[in-house]
Amino acid sequence: NKATGITLQEYGFKGSYDIMPNGTDITIPEKLKYISYRKKGLKMINAGSDEFIMLFVGQHRWEKNVKLIIDALKRIKDKGIEFNMVFVGEGYAAGDMKKLVRKYNLQNNVIFMGVITDRNELKRIYAASDLFVFPSIYDNSPLVMQEAAAFDVPSVVVRNSSSAETILDGVNGFLVENDPADLVKKIIALMQDEHAIKKAGEGARKSIYHPWESIIDDVYLRYTTLI
Question: How far apart are CA 77 and CA 117, in angstroms?
Answer without folding.
Answer: 31
